[in-house]
Design brief:
The structure holds two protein chains of two kinds. In chain A, strands 1-2 form a two-stranded antiparallel ribbon. Chain A is globular and about 70 Å long. In chain A, 75% of the residues lie in helices and 1% in strands. Chain B has two domains: 58 residues; 128 residues, no CATH class. Helix content of chain B is 60%, strand content 3%. Classes of the chains: A mainly alpha, B mainly alpha.
Chain lengths: 500, 213
């Protein structure tokens, strides 16, 4: 406990420095600004804004990136509430009741409770990360290559189970992602793999490029075909704070959402994405009058939004302690850390405590700032949302091009976002979900490296994964999960959760 | 992919979406295996560079095959028709930006670098035309207004290493003028031009409305 407090106060002393405070503020602001744009989720936002952090010192850069992340998340909820266009999967749920509230003239209350709930969730999640960081780091030190490999298998199985739609398609997407990650020079042997003889592929595919293509460009391609039918909330948003009755109704959902979100966020394999869905289902089940849901029930905003934010934050835990990115955003964080010469993993906490704790403290400060920035700025976001999409998408596209070019100064990266954009567009047309592919890509290199090491240690015997107790346990969990997902009854339940 | 028609009725292909998707996966797998043909897989105790990708490609191909076969057995979705005009223009805008932002060599031909000041607005206009709702003058105003914003933000404020001006013009700046000064002045000029286009566009649309009514 004492160490927790002293660690947090070290973190606060770093994060409250004038420069870092300004960076957190700026990050939250631009993150929200870009995240509010319809069809631009956190992944595309971060990939786009990554270059602006290059000139900063590592701590400042990570603080700003975390701010951008929370800003983009919150911006997505704002769009979901005000225009019913969820920027990404996790705000789909918010759009249901949030937009219904907005139609009834309670847009202010919906935005307010989203901000307050997220702030509460962020506070709890920050403390959780601080508390769990040290013990989990110790666990991480027990992990050898076979354990890491098994853990990542479990993450991928989670991603398959959590993905909507056909399991076969989800597995295929994971394999495609893993396959894409092996493009480029093999670090062990120096061989060029699948580079088509092109030098720009020697270093492999940059994750930011893939993510920007699949989440940024293909989203634009997809939206082009749809006729624009946006109904932005009209009239002024009068009061941003929920009234007393609404607050009372929201307390319990916020707490439950926070707990659910924190738990789901820690799961490897993008568990955070399921948290808002789960929270919505729970609130609907517990409500005295479930028929209110979908028509503007404040619990349907408060719970999922808290769950979303808690999950977004606790998904940092696998990255900071084990060095394993749990989702696409964390993979971009890995990219950002590597650029600044930091290799994510258990050694960050011991080797660079001011960076580690500073970043954790800044998470809380970032949440506080969102509350402060967004309540007065909502009017601006509304105006931004009234700009027609025919003018927004060329702007988004050029930001994508400039952002991706600036990362490596490679024109070929810009060409690749076009290529991956078309790929993502085709995948969606063929009924595939791109999210598992990105996770496969994220984990691919680490998996190959750990598999290779584990097999060297075991002299080529695959039994090492079942004889080592930890890795056997992790693999057993994966198998059980897969079996459960294949049982018809539960599959139906799962489909129900996703369709709701 | 648009040739596949609605699969309802007695067609043997019951899920065209899955058939196309499955075949696409098989094609990707085949491409990967062909690219990996010269690499060695090694053994388990000494993994070669091709082991993991080859295993994955084979797995992917099998998945694709299973998916394609399932299209004949289980009913599924059809592939929606896609208007290609929009996506092609968006991709064209990306390609234009990529090959003109700085000198770009394609084989023996080198495309001169035009810098952000030309690449960005042209890309904005090309992309903007992708939607049927596009209005040309409005797009020109957007391109003229957004470009100086990007120049000031990315080139001036953030100092990103992105070329702003055409490579051939850099040498011809007046003596004693820094690139930043030129950047700021051109930005101001472009913003002024935006205002002009915007105002005339508005006047035109008002008079159009007047003549219609």
């Amino acid at each position: 406990m004492d160490t927790l407090i002293s660690n947090l106060s070290l973190g606060l002393s770093v994060a409250l420095g004038l420069q870092n405070l300004a960076l957190a503020f700026l990050g939250c602001l631009v993150g929200t600004l870009i995240g509010v744009l319809p069809g631009v989720g956190p992944v595309a936002t971060i990939a786009m804004l990554l270059p602006i952090t290059f000139s900063l010192d590592p701590t400042g850069a990570l603080i700003m990136l975390a701010g951008i992340y929370y800003g983009a998340q919150y911006g997505g909820s704002t769009t979901a509430i005000l225009v019913n266009i969820p920027g990404e999967a996790t705000s789909v749920v918010t759009a249901l009741d949030g937009h219904a509230m907005a139609r009834r003239g309670r847009a202010g209350a919906a935005l307010g409770i989203a901000a307050l709930g997220s702030f509460f969730a962020g506070t709890v999640a920050t403390i959780l990360i601080a508390a769990m960081g040290a013990p989990l780091t110790r666990v991480a030190l027990l992990f050898g290559p076979s354990e890491y490999f098994a853990l990542m298998i479990m993450g991928l199985v989670f991603a398959v189970v959590l993905a909507g739609g056909s399991l076969l398609k989800a597995v295929a997407m994971i394999m495609l992602g893993l396959l894409l990650s092996t493009v480029g020079t093999d670090l062990e042997t120096g061989d060029q793999r699948m580079t088509f003889g092109q030098p720009f592929l020697w270093d492999g595919i940059d994750f930011a490029v893939l993510a920007m293509g699949v989440f940024g460009v293909s989203e634009i391609l997809r939206n082009l075909g749809q006729s624009e039918d946006r109904d932005v909330v009209r009239g002024a948003i009068s009061r941003l704070l929920p009234n007393r009755k609404e607050l009372r109704q929201s307390v319990a959902p916020v707490v439950r959402g926070t707990l659910l979100g924190s738990a789901f966020g820690i799961l490897p394999g993008n568990g955070a994405i399921l948290a808002p869905f789960a929270s919505y289902a729970v609130e609907k089940k517990l409500a005295k009058d479930p028929s209110r849901f979908g028509k503007g029930a404040i619990e349907g905003v408060a719970g999922p939004e808290s769950a979303n934010n808690a999950g977004a934050q606790t998904s940092f835990i696998p990255l900071l302690t084990l060095g394993i990115p749990a989702n696409a955003v964390m993979a971009l964080m890995v990219g950002a850390m590597t650029i600044h010469g930091i290799i994510p993993g258990p050694q960050v906490m011991t080797g660079n405590p001011s960076l580690f704790w500073g970043m954790i403290a800044s998470m809380w400060i970032g949440n506080l700032m969102l509350l402060i920035i967004n309540l007065p700025l909502v009017g601006l976001w509304v105006r931004l949302l009234k700009v027609p999409y025919r003018l927004l998408f060329p702007a988004i596209l050029v930001f994508c091009c400039i952002g991706i070019y600036s990362i490596n100064s490679q024109p070929t990266d810009v060409l690749l976002i076009g290529l991956f954009g078309s790929l993502g567009f085709l995948l969606i047309r063929f009924g595939f979900e791109p999210a598992p592919m990105l996770l496969g890509f994220v984990l691919g290199k680490l998996m190959e490296e750990n598999l290779r090491r584990a097999l060297i240690l075991s002299r080529g015997s695959l039994s090492t994964f079942v004889t080592e107790p930890i890795s056997a346990g992790l693999l057993a969990v994966s198998v059980i999960l897969l079996v459960i997902a294949l049982v018809p009854n539960i599959r139906k339940g799962r489909d129900k959760v996703f369709s709701e | 992919m648009n040739e596949i028609k609605n699969a309802t009725g007695r067609s043997t292909i019951r899920a065209p979406q899955n058939l196309a998707g499955g075949l696409a996966l098989v094609a990707v797998a085949a491409l990967a295996l062909w690219q990996l043909r010269d690499l060695t897989a090694g053994s388990l105790s000494e993994m070669g560079s091709a082991l993991m990708p080859r295993a994955l490609a084979v797995g992917l191909g099998l998945m694709g095959l299973a998916l394609a076969v399932s299209a004949f057995l289980r009913p599924g979705l059809i592939i929606e028709r896609t208007e290609l005009h929009g996506p092609v223009l968006v991709l064209l805008a990306i390609v234009f930006f990529a090959v003109t932002i700085r000198p770009f060599a394609i084989g023996p031909v080198t495309i001169p670098g035009l810098g952000l000041i030309i690449s960005a607005p042209v890309a904005i206009v090309i992309a903007g035309l992708a939607t049927p709702e596009a209005r040309f003058r409005e797009l020109v105003a957007l391109a003229l207004g957004l470009t100086p914003f990007c120049m000031l933000m990315f080139g001036d404020l953030l100092n990103l290493p992105i070329p702003i001006f055409p490579a051939s013009l850099i040498g011809s700046f007046p003596d004693g003028w820094s690139q930043k000064a030129v950047l700021r002045i051109t930005s101001a000029v472009m913003l002024a031009a935006t205002v002009v286009v915007f105002v005339t566009d508005r006047q035109k649309s008002i008079s159009d409305q007047g003549s219609e009514g």
